[in-house]
Amino acid sequence: MPHQLDAPTRLAVSTVIFTLRPGAAGRAVLWTPLVRRTREPQLGLWALPGGWLPVNEELEVAAARTLRATTGLAPKYLEQLYTFGEVNRSPDARVVSVVYWALVQSDEAARAAAGPNVRWVPADTLPGLAFDHNRIVEYALWRLRTKVEYTEIAHAFLGGTFTLAELREVYEAVLQRSLDPANFRRTMIASGRLRETGEFQAGAAHRPPKLYRYDPSATRTADDREPFQSERPAS
Amino acid sequence: MPHQLDAPTRLAVSTVIFTLRPGAAGRAVLWTPLVRRTREPQLGLWALPGGWLPVNEELEVAAARTLRATTGLAPKYLEQLYTFGEVNRSPDARVVSVVYWALVQSDEAARAAAGPNVRWVPADTLPGLAFDHNRIVEYALWRLRTKVEYTEIAHAFLGGTFTLAELREVYEAVLQRSLDPANFRRTMIASGRLRETGEFQAGAAHRPPKLYRYDPSATRTADDREPFQSERPAS
DNA sequence: TCAGCTTACAGTCGTGTTGACCAGAAGGCG
DNA sequence: CGCCTTCTGGTCAACACGACTGTAAGCTGA
Predict the structure, then answer these.
(1) Which of A23, A142, B157, B221 would bridge with A29, disulfide CB 3.0–4.6 Å?
(2) In Å, what is the separation between the CA of B194 and the C1' of D10?
(3) Of all helices (H) and strands (E), which one includes residue A134?
């Protein structure tokens, strides 16, 4: 056992943050911010945003706070991912990390601050990160891709109103495959959670598409909702 | 803020344990073991099995250990559920609990030890528990019922071999609704994860049913498996 | 101005899944 | 040996969903 017996287990909160950025092949790709470690252990390596849990702060609030500290943004979706507590995941002391994952609006993230100690990277081709953070991001990616298929979190990447093509681009970027526009329209309308705004998005060289708004109150049965998962957490 | 500023946050591991027992209406019901608190706070109240996390023990091992301590059993399924860390969930200090949920084999659980400080209760009609443990059990129940529908964890309640009727009873007990025997057979066989043992269960006053065995290696694609979730954890 | 281009949007068709239902098989029991 | 039970295999219709076709409606450029 590598730790001092009298050293207590330390509790940290980290957050995997996702946003979308335009990609080369016309399809958007997932990006995530990393922070450079400014102290030992693993000084200089890139790691997930996070920090020690203050005694009087809620877990979710701590996650949102570190998210704001590194990106200047408020999450549009924030959910607990998993708690990582392997005995040897940190070389110095026993550290248990409660990890959250978050989605932030893409156009806001484009204006996000990125200093010398904050760096955005494509989530699918990460550099070698500190501790077990590569594995954590991979798990968060798996959860995002799984959850996009059976919930309505995709709109968290977009603004208040969006076209069906924009929403489809989000799905295609997350799922990494093309979707038939007509079928996509049918299933999204059938979900009952989209409301037409009555407005259209003009300016493009084709027929102007309708603008929709996400309506969380619509046709949602009680038993498919998850307990205590807030979709719009207080930042 | 009710806590002393210098008191550190304490880290606990608790486990929600489920098994099946024969019920009145012919349908089995879910039972869970509780332990009586032997010290303050909430002394005398019933609570989930658990304890403080030792510095050198893995989270999952700690969960399996407390499970063994209260039931004398090894889990056939063990998975992390959620981490509960509300600032005021414990009146004395800040306590963050990493909660696991487990399934134990029903016939083994029937022989499980139950002393004056261990009590098995139906999981759907709990008494008032200590702290936020009622909410935790409710969430574990929701997760069990959700996960039974898209995974193959139901066999964890049964022994090595079982009939399709026994397996169907498990599903009916967990989902709390009747299932058509013929359709149930079709979907289970189509899943490809059941193997005939070649033996039959004799002795009943009807046609003897085939005995099956669960085969986890069969026809499982790589991307529907969850990362680092062990189905047969080391006890 | 008008052909032509692009995307929005609507509908059809075939397939696979799933629930409801039916019928024969194969044991034990009176 | 009839009769009960459950086991087991099958059909049928409703539905969801992917592939595909066709029309609508804007903008652009010659």
Answers:
(1) A23
(2) 21
(3) helix A133-150
Residue of chain B nearest A57, judged by CA positions: B87
What's the rounded Cα separation, in Å, for the pair A31 and A121? Answer: 5
Measured CA to CA, the distance from residue B49 to residue B36 in angstroms comes to: 9
Domain co-membership, A58 together with A24? yes
| pLDDT given at position A232 | 41
Phi–psi pair at B118, nearest 5 degrees = -130, 130
Residue B59 Cα, gap to closest chain A Cα (Å): 6
Torsional class of B230: left (φ above 0), alpha (ψ -120 to 50), beta (otherwise)? beta
Report the C-alpha gap between B134 and A203 in whole angstroms.
55
Cβ–Cβ under 8 Å, residues B63 and B78: yes
Instruction: Look at residue B233 in the predicted model and tell me its pLDDT.
Output: 39
Count: domains in chain A: 2
pLDDT surpassing 90 at residue B224: no
Question: What crossing angle do the helices spanning B133-150 and B164-175 adopt, rounded to 10°?
Answer: 140
> How big is the A-B interface in CB pairs under 8 Å?
71
DSSP annotation of A129 reads: B
pTM of this prediction? 0.92
Q: How far is B57 from chain A (nearest CA, A)?
A: 7
Longest dimension (CA), chain B: 69
Nucleotides of C under 7 A from a protein CB: 5-11, 18-29
8-state DSSP, A38: -
What is the reported pLDDT for A231?
Answer: 41
Last residue of a domain, one of A150, A168, A196: A150
